[in-house]
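Here is a tokenized protein:
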Amino acid sequence: SKALNEVVWLAYEERLSRTRNAMKWLRSVATEFASQNIPMSWVSPSGQPIKLAKWTRKERKIETLIGEQLYRPTYWADTNELDPHRMRNTLPVAFVHSYEAGFLHNSLARMGADNVPINSVVPIHDCIGVHANAVTQTVRTLKDEWSQQYDGQEIFERHFGEWQAICPKIEEPPKTGSVPFDLATSDYFFH
């Protein structure tokens, strides 16, 4: 299994180095915000405000008497200090999910507002179920929305200026690249 792990990791490095660089950059941004004890915020593509604050937790104990029995339950309470480890591990995931949720929100809004609206939709996380007669229109809407959200846009540049104004030590973001094929003529679409 170690040999397979090495092969997979080398392929990952070769094919997805920009993804790794993006994650590394987001982790460094979160670390800087945590070191300044400042919660992070941004706006998703659908206009939803996002706030990220993972506070350090401290174990607390209480003593209570129930009948004649003494209980000492413990619980975790947030402190007023951000947890750098939790911030660093949460930002890449939260950032990507906010973009995926924004994509889904915008796609569903467009599907309902089309000339022939698609009203029977079952969205589950990042999957969309529709009746068979609406598949072609749904795929076209998804491709169009994806293109509007991502084509020709440096995603990190949208947030870099805001974040750097708050934490000036943040490094320049990595370039995000482009899709090496024409999505409009592709037979398939996976987000």
User: Anything to note?
Assistant: The chain is about 50% helix and 20% strand. The CA atoms of residues 143 and 185 lie 10 Å apart. The beta strands are 40-43, 49-52, 55-61, 64-66, 69-71, 74-82, 121-124, 127-130. The longest strand covers residues 74-82.
